[in-house]
Amino acid sequence: MAGTVVVGLGSPLMGDDGLGLCALEALRHLGRFTPEPEWVDGGTWGMNLLPTIEGAERLLLLDAIRAGRAPGELVVLSRASLPRGLGMKLSPHQIDLQEVLALAELRGTLPAEAVALGLEPERVELGWGLSEVVGAGLADLVSRAARQLARWGHRCEVAAPGSAPPPAPARSKARDAGRPADVL
Fold first, then answer.
1. What is the pLDDT of residue 4?
2. Is residue 109 situated within a structural domain?
3. Which pLDDT value is given to residue 29?
4. Are 29 and 157 in contact (CB under 8 A)?
5. How far apart are CA 14 and CA 20, in angstroms?
6. Contact 46, 96 (CB under 8 A)
Protein backbone atom coordinates (compact mmCIF):
# COMPACT_ATOMS: atom_id res chain seq x y z
CA MET A 1 0.00 0.00 0.00
CA ALA A 2 1.16 3.50 -0.89
CA GLY A 3 -0.29 5.39 2.09
CA THR A 4 -1.78 8.68 0.93
CA VAL A 5 -1.94 9.39 -2.79
CA VAL A 6 -2.78 12.86 -4.09
CA VAL A 7 -3.91 12.89 -7.73
CA GLY A 8 -4.22 16.06 -9.79
CA LEU A 9 -6.59 15.62 -12.74
CA GLY A 10 -7.49 17.47 -15.91
CA SER A 11 -6.00 18.99 -19.01
CA PRO A 12 -4.17 22.32 -18.94
CA LEU A 13 -5.15 22.75 -22.60
CA MET A 14 -8.83 23.02 -21.63
CA GLY A 15 -8.94 26.14 -19.45
CA ASP A 16 -10.39 25.52 -15.99
CA ASP A 17 -10.12 21.77 -16.55
CA GLY A 18 -6.41 22.20 -15.74
CA LEU A 19 -7.25 23.19 -12.16
CA GLY A 20 -6.38 19.81 -10.64
CA LEU A 21 -2.85 19.92 -12.03
CA CYS A 22 -2.36 23.54 -10.88
CA ALA A 23 -3.60 22.61 -7.39
CA LEU A 24 -1.32 19.57 -7.26
CA GLU A 25 1.76 21.65 -8.07
CA ALA A 26 0.82 24.43 -5.65
CA LEU A 27 0.20 21.89 -2.86
CA ARG A 28 3.50 20.12 -3.53
CA HIS A 29 5.32 23.45 -3.27
CA LEU A 30 3.41 24.64 -0.20
CA GLY A 31 6.02 23.08 2.04
CA ARG A 32 7.52 19.80 3.18
CA PHE A 33 4.95 17.19 4.19
CA THR A 34 5.87 14.53 6.74
CA PRO A 35 5.23 11.77 5.89
CA GLU A 36 5.38 12.68 2.22
CA PRO A 37 2.27 11.67 0.25
CA GLU A 38 2.65 10.20 -3.21
CA TRP A 39 2.04 13.00 -5.74
CA VAL A 40 0.49 11.86 -9.04
CA ASP A 41 -0.03 13.98 -12.13
CA GLY A 42 -3.10 12.08 -13.30
CA GLY A 43 -3.83 14.41 -16.21
CA THR A 44 -6.28 12.53 -18.39
CA TRP A 45 -4.85 9.05 -17.76
CA GLY A 46 -8.21 7.29 -17.48
CA MET A 47 -7.91 3.56 -16.75
CA ASN A 48 -4.13 3.87 -16.27
CA LEU A 49 -4.92 5.41 -12.86
CA LEU A 50 -6.54 2.18 -11.60
CA PRO A 51 -3.35 0.62 -10.09
CA THR A 52 -2.49 3.93 -8.39
CA ILE A 53 -5.96 4.24 -6.87
CA GLU A 54 -6.11 0.57 -5.86
CA GLY A 55 -2.69 0.81 -4.19
CA ALA A 56 -3.63 3.77 -1.99
CA GLU A 57 -4.75 3.64 1.62
CA ARG A 58 -6.07 7.21 1.37
CA LEU A 59 -6.93 9.03 -1.85
CA LEU A 60 -7.16 12.79 -2.40
CA LEU A 61 -8.39 13.83 -5.86
CA LEU A 62 -7.95 17.41 -7.09
CA ASP A 63 -10.01 18.49 -10.10
CA ALA A 64 -12.44 20.96 -11.61
CA ILE A 65 -15.82 19.60 -10.49
CA ARG A 66 -19.17 20.53 -12.01
CA ALA A 67 -21.65 20.50 -9.17
CA GLY A 68 -24.08 23.21 -10.28
CA ARG A 69 -22.52 25.88 -8.06
CA ALA A 70 -21.18 29.33 -8.80
CA PRO A 71 -17.90 29.34 -10.76
CA GLY A 72 -14.91 29.26 -8.41
CA GLU A 73 -16.91 27.83 -5.48
CA LEU A 74 -15.21 25.07 -3.47
CA VAL A 75 -16.60 21.56 -3.97
CA VAL A 76 -15.87 18.77 -1.48
CA LEU A 77 -16.97 15.22 -2.24
CA SER A 78 -16.60 12.50 0.38
CA ARG A 79 -16.02 8.90 -0.65
CA ALA A 80 -19.75 8.18 -0.51
CA SER A 81 -20.44 11.12 -2.85
CA LEU A 82 -17.82 10.28 -5.47
CA PRO A 83 -19.62 9.58 -8.75
CA ARG A 84 -18.99 6.03 -9.84
CA GLY A 85 -20.59 4.48 -12.85
CA LEU A 86 -20.05 2.36 -15.90
CA GLY A 87 -21.56 3.55 -19.14
CA MET A 88 -21.64 2.67 -22.80
CA LYS A 89 -18.56 3.98 -24.57
CA LEU A 90 -17.92 4.28 -28.28
CA SER A 91 -14.17 4.03 -27.80
CA PRO A 92 -11.75 2.85 -25.10
CA HIS A 93 -10.36 6.40 -25.16
CA GLN A 94 -13.57 7.63 -23.54
CA ILE A 95 -12.80 6.03 -20.17
CA ASP A 96 -12.92 8.65 -17.43
CA LEU A 97 -12.47 8.76 -13.69
CA GLN A 98 -16.06 7.67 -12.98
CA GLU A 99 -15.36 4.32 -14.64
CA VAL A 100 -12.04 3.95 -12.85
CA LEU A 101 -13.71 4.56 -9.47
CA ALA A 102 -16.57 2.19 -10.36
CA LEU A 103 -14.13 -0.58 -11.27
CA ALA A 104 -12.11 -0.08 -8.08
CA GLU A 105 -15.39 -0.21 -6.10
CA LEU A 106 -16.47 -3.42 -7.86
CA ARG A 107 -13.08 -5.00 -7.16
CA GLY A 108 -13.27 -3.94 -3.50
CA THR A 109 -10.10 -1.85 -3.84
CA LEU A 110 -11.40 1.74 -3.67
CA PRO A 111 -9.64 3.25 -0.64
CA ALA A 112 -11.85 3.52 2.43
CA GLU A 113 -10.68 7.11 2.86
CA ALA A 114 -11.19 9.07 -0.35
CA VAL A 115 -12.02 12.72 -0.89
CA ALA A 116 -12.31 14.84 -4.03
CA LEU A 117 -11.66 18.57 -3.76
CA GLY A 118 -12.12 21.08 -6.51
CA LEU A 119 -13.70 24.26 -7.71
CA GLU A 120 -16.70 24.74 -9.92
CA PRO A 121 -15.25 25.62 -13.34
CA GLU A 122 -16.31 28.71 -15.22
CA ARG A 123 -15.13 27.55 -18.64
CA VAL A 124 -13.88 24.27 -20.01
CA GLU A 125 -12.80 24.98 -23.56
CA LEU A 126 -9.68 24.89 -25.66
CA GLY A 127 -7.31 27.45 -24.18
CA TRP A 128 -4.42 27.78 -21.76
CA GLY A 129 -4.78 28.91 -18.13
CA LEU A 130 -7.50 29.24 -15.56
CA SER A 131 -10.33 31.76 -15.67
CA GLU A 132 -9.96 34.67 -13.25
CA VAL A 133 -12.61 33.39 -10.83
CA VAL A 134 -11.15 29.87 -10.68
CA GLY A 135 -7.60 31.18 -10.44
CA ALA A 136 -8.69 33.37 -7.51
CA GLY A 137 -10.00 30.28 -5.67
CA LEU A 138 -6.83 28.22 -6.15
CA ALA A 139 -5.24 29.29 -2.84
CA ASP A 140 -8.37 28.30 -0.88
CA LEU A 141 -8.45 24.92 -2.63
CA VAL A 142 -4.78 24.29 -1.78
CA SER A 143 -5.39 25.31 1.83
CA ARG A 144 -8.36 22.92 2.09
CA ALA A 145 -6.27 20.12 0.57
CA ALA A 146 -3.46 20.77 3.09
CA ARG A 147 -6.01 20.57 5.94
CA GLN A 148 -7.26 17.23 4.57
CA LEU A 149 -3.71 15.90 4.49
CA ALA A 150 -3.22 17.10 8.08
CA ARG A 151 -6.35 15.15 9.12
CA TRP A 152 -4.68 12.08 7.64
CA GLY A 153 -1.51 12.67 9.67
CA HIS A 154 0.65 14.58 7.18
CA ARG A 155 2.31 17.54 8.87
CA CYS A 156 3.31 20.42 6.64
CA GLU A 157 6.33 22.60 7.29
CA VAL A 158 5.34 25.63 5.22
CA ALA A 159 7.90 26.83 2.68
CA ALA A 160 9.46 30.26 3.02
CA PRO A 161 7.48 33.10 1.40
CA GLY A 162 8.33 33.53 -2.25
CA SER A 163 9.49 29.94 -2.71
CA ALA A 164 6.15 28.65 -4.01
CA PRO A 165 5.48 28.87 -7.74
CA PRO A 166 3.09 31.61 -8.80
CA PRO A 167 -0.54 30.63 -9.39
CA ALA A 168 -1.57 29.66 -12.90
CA PRO A 169 -2.20 32.62 -15.17
CA ALA A 170 -5.79 33.74 -15.63
CA ARG A 171 -7.27 33.47 -19.09
CA SER A 172 -8.97 36.26 -20.90
CA LYS A 173 -12.73 36.13 -20.95
CA ALA A 174 -13.92 34.11 -23.93
CA ARG A 175 -17.21 32.60 -24.97
CA ASP A 176 -17.93 29.20 -23.41
CA ALA A 177 -17.83 26.53 -26.10
CA GLY A 178 -20.36 24.45 -24.16
CA ARG A 179 -18.05 21.45 -23.74
CA PRO A 180 -18.69 19.27 -20.70
CA ALA A 181 -16.23 19.45 -17.82
CA ASP A 182 -14.37 16.56 -16.29
CA VAL A 183 -16.70 15.48 -13.54
CA LEU A 184 -15.44 13.11 -10.89
1. 98
2. yes
3. 94
4. no
5. 12
6. yes
